[in-house]
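Thread amino acids onto this structure.
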């Protein structure tokens, strides 16, 4: 689902406002120029170079305004094209920045880790709301990129975790033991694509809105 009514009207309104501004500027310039010509000293008329300079300034302003109109129209077309392409993500499962993992009816949502650079050691933990560690994973050395984490919903003793929300924690280090930048990813399903004043947004249901660039992986 794509909502584009508001954005289309915004583009049209922007073009209309720019056209009105250009027309008003031209009218003010011509009014000022006629006033100058009427009130000039006959013994010291306006210099041709000065008149030519003022006309050139108007032409420059006019050209810049027309360029702005063209760029505004192109921006609207690009955003609409992006929204149409993003519509292919509707009903698709994605990983976006976040740390939540949900358990319900024996089903656990996937999670992920985004490694900025290669790591010699990566560890992941599943914790509950109180911060208690239910399950830990030693993932060893990993290359830079997206690393999927599939929790089976069991704790270290093999008991099933109660239905509810849990959280993914990650730590990564290089060969010298220095920390490597790593962030967690959470699962979401794209419900709709919105195209409004803020650009193209993905509606992720209970996870809110996200930018198209927030998607780290399509599952």
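Threaded sequence (219 positions):
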């Amino acid at each position: 689902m794509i909502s584009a009514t508001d954005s289309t009207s915004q583009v049209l309104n922007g073009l209309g406002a720019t056209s009105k501004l250009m027309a008003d500027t031209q009218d003010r310039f011509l009014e000022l120029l006629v006033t100058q010509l009427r009130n000039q000293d006959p013994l010291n008329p306006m210099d041709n170079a000065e008149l030519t300079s003022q006309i050139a300034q108007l032409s420059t302003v006019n050209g810049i305004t027309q360029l702005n109109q063209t760029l505004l129209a192109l921006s609207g077309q690009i955003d609409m094209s992006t929204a149409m392409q993003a519509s292919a993500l509707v009903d698709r499962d994605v990983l976006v920045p976040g740390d939540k993992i949900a358990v319900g009816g024996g089903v656990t949502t996937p999670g992920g880790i985004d490694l900025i650079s290669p790591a010699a050691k990566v560890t992941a933990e599943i914790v509950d709301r109180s911060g208690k560690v239910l399950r830990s994973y030693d993932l060893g050395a990993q290359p830079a990129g997206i690393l999927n984490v599939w929790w089976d919903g069991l704790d270290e003793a093999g008991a099933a975790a109660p239905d509810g929300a849990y959280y993914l924690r990650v730590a990564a280090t290089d060969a010298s033991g220095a920390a490597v930048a790593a962030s967690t990813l959470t699962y979401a399903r794209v419900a709709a694509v919105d195209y409004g004043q803020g650009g193209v947004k993905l509606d992720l249901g209970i996870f809110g809105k996200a930018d198209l660039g927030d998607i780290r992986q399509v599952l």
